[in-house]
Request: fold
Amino acid sequence: MPSDKPSLKVDDLVVRFPIRQRGEQRYITPVDHVSFEIKPGEVLSLVGESGSGKSTLGRALVRLIEPSKGSICIGNNDVTHIRRSTELRGLRKNIQMVFQDPFASLNPVRTIGQHLKILVRKHQGLRGRQLEQRVIQLLDTVGLYPGQEVMVKYPHEMSGGQRQRVAIARALTVNPSFLVADEPISMLDVSIRADILKLLKRLKSDFDLGYLYITHDLASAKYFGDKIMVMYGGQVMETGTSKEIVDNAVHPYTRLLLASTAGSPRRERVGETSLEAPDLFEGRRGCPFAHRCPFVSDVCRTEKPPLVEQVHGHAVACHHPVLGGGNRRHDEE
Reply:
C-alpha cells in the first residue's frame, strides 16, 4: 500500500562557514552541492571518514545549521530557510535527530520521565494519566521496561545503550516521518550495537520511518541501509543500492573504505599518495580525493568530476572509475 507520508528531497545543498586566515576572511564548504532523496520507509546510509561533512549535512536537514544554497523539501514544502518558531515546530514534527553521544544529548538533572513528558505534553497535548501512559508506551516501544521504574531514573543511572534508547523514544514523541541518526552506535559497547540497529530497523517497519543513517562503518551501512551514499570532502563520491556499492564499488575512495572495513570480502590493497585532510576551501578545483588517489591525473586536479550514473541507480563522481573489479583505471586496461 502506498504511504501517505512525504518524501525528503535535498537538491544542490551547500553549507559554508566563514573563517579568518592570515587576517583575511575565507569560506569552507563542508557540504558542497549535495543532492539526494529519501522516500517514506527508506534508509539512506551516509558513509565517509570523519570530516567528510556527514554530520554537518544531517544538522542542516533539521535546521540546526542554516544552509547557504540549495533546497530541502519535505513533500511539497520547502523548509530550507524557514525561521518562525511555528514553522520550525512543524518541520521538527516531520524530521528528528538522534545524536551520537546519548549522554550529552540528555539533561543530567531531569529524569527520563521528565525528558519525555515535556515533549508529549507540548506536541500531543496530553495531561495526567494519559500523559503518563503515553510515556510508558514510548519506553516500551524502545525496549525499556517496566516503564514506571525507568521514568524516575536519571541519565547517569542508565547504561549507554539504555540512554540511546531514551534518545530514540524522545525523537518518536512527535511521530516523525524521518530520523537523522548521527552515528547512533559509535559510542556504545560492541555487544549492544547490534541491538540498537535492530531496534531502528523494527521502528522503520512499525512506523514507516525514513532514515538518514550517518556512519563511518560500511558493514552497518549495508545491514541497515537500502541505499548508500559515500561522501568525501563535502562532496558525493558514489551512491547506489547497498548491495551494489558493497559488491561493485567503482570509486577508489569507496574501495579504500571497503578494504579497511573489518569482515569485508574486499581486502585488496588500495594505495594512497597522501594522508592529508581534504581541501574544504570555497573555490577549490578538481576532485577532493585527488591528493590521495592512486589513479590521479591532471584532469583530476583541475576539473571536478560530475556524478554520472554507471548502471541504473549506481552513480559515481570520478574521472577514472575502477571498472570490472580491477585495480587499474579503465583507460589503462
Observations:
- The CA atoms of residues 94 and 176 lie 4 Å apart.
- The first helix runs from residue 54 to 61.
